[in-house]
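discrete fold record:
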Amino acid sequence: MVKSPDAGAAGATLPLNLLRITPSGEDAQPGRQVVFEFNRPVVPLGRMERDASEIPVTFEPALACQWRWLNPSSLACQLDEKNALAPATRYRLIVRPGIRAEDGATLSGELHHTFVTQRPKVVEARFKNWLSPGTPRIFLRFSQPVQEESAAAHLYFRLEGNPRVAAVLAEDPDYTQSADYIKGSIWLVTPAGELPADKGVDFAVEPGILPVRGSEPGVERKSIFSFHTFPEFRFLGVRCSNRAGKEILIRPGEALSPKSRCSPVRDISLLFSAPALTEDMKDSLRFSPPLPRLGEDFDPWETTGSYSRLFEAHSKGYAYPVFLPFQGLRANTEYRIQADAATVKDEFGRPLTRPMDIRISTDHLPPDYSLYKSMPVLEKGLDTDAPMLVTNIQRVDIRYEAMTLDGKTLPRTVTLPVSAPQDSTSVLPLGIRRLLPRSSGVILGEVATQPAVSGRSDFENWFIAQVTPFHVHVKFGHHNTLVWLTDLQTGEPVPGVDVQIFQGGMKSLDPSPRALSRGRTREDGTAVLAGTETIDPDLKMLHAFEPGEPRLFLSCMRGEDMAFMPLVYDFRVDALGANQEYIPSWQKSRHGHVKAWGATAQGSTVPGIRFNTRSTSAARTTDISFRRRRRSTCSKSWIPWRRWFLNGKGSRCRSSEHSTANSRFRRTGLWAGTVLCCPLISPGRNGNL
């Protein structure tokens, strides 16, 4: 930066000085402009271009400047694309007296300035892959093309306590065919020879890398990243977790103990000192007892895969897992896992240094359960039930309340004993029909087990079940709701059923809810109720998520029969088109689907002009004539267009539905912050404003 002692003073009597020259310093971006900023105005507005002979500035190396004053105090040397500043180049320039202000003032003497454009530097570095246990390949991207020999001389691998190893460069075939590839900017780097096994390595750069264009070398001196070469291929042991989730490491030759029992429902993996693939190893492993098979065609390894780890840098002591089949080991069983050294190989093809032999034991399965359906619907007159899956559970307590046409029962509790072999999963019927005092009704309940299962949310313990003869279909729309009832046994429409939509909760049944809309099915089994426009215009109840939030329900009652449908996601059916293509049916709140757009065939950027446009909304198309005004508000006889467009009420500036109207409209001011105005028109003009 160039400064004058008087640069901060004010007034036209200041001596003429240069405040700054841009670019400046080192590693400046090589652009297409050099700007000289003076401490006060030098030229008047008018002819801003200048011939090179008028400007006493010289560059080394020379530049093909096109001189122009950007403003009265800033002069620019502008360069075309062909003659832009070169990268990695040191530019020296001299500014001599001769540039004169209007009062005749000029610089007091020569001014020298130097800047250096961007020099080569590494802008991206990542591990590409391993060619061998001691030969890494590293991807480098430079800020600009660099000379291969120079880069190879100043990139190196440094070993712990040893001299550095030279680097070898090659082009990356993944990039050479790319349309935007710049030769010399991307390189793959490998060491000149195999690096020693199990050693720490620094990959580094030092100053001196020369660019392809320019003469200034790079000045970086840093470690790009560090890694470790691979040790010999060894089996390290088994890693698993106990039932509490604590990680366990079992090494070869260790005696088994109760504290080292592996949970059979958590990951169990073999650990190796170098990466190995499951697919290459699974046939070499011998399990005693053998892995369980569910049939001749069942392969316990089928769902256990792996991927190559040769694309990652290796860290000292890292253990590479090969996962055993998930839940492929029996519970409460001691296993011996063996393999011959020559048959187990890592991804480099190296065999184990010694045979593999290890013993592990699995623990009992933890107590667990699952409600197969949280909202089961059972058909009246059949012997079906709602199932619950249980593992190592002794009993299940169901606390519930029932509702039939007789009303709601008091909360009750029933205990279901479980008789099943240990470490097996069995199906427990909940006995929904036995819990109802009538043949049709609704049960809302929650389950608790002995022993208890921790980590369960309230909704995982909760269920709402019903027994009904009705199949209920609801199309919940904006303007109205269509309810269609058919008989589950015959498929015929069910007339004369009282239906209602009401607000309720998921934690308790309400025997006398307040109806938001009610009706009765006709001969075709249908009834039309109110839509979201009336019942839930903001869709808060329809989109409720938290268990305690109010929701919408539909109840259907006739005689002693009833059906109960929570209007929730679990009962939603999405529409599918041809080839199973999803058809969106996203419900929105009131006016959420309204769209509006407009078009004009003429420019409209000059205030005060008149122009025509056509604007379209969901039910209205209007030809409009706008007028731009410089005022910032509408006059007394005009109304803001936004108010007319959004509220759609009254007679002001409103066209009738499906009509086309010609009208005068005004927009005041410039586009930023302007107001679009339309005239006040009395009703009765059939949309002609």
Summary: The helical segments are 148-154, 173-176, 278-281, 432-435, 458-461, 532-535, 641-647. The first strand starts at residue 18 and ends at 22.
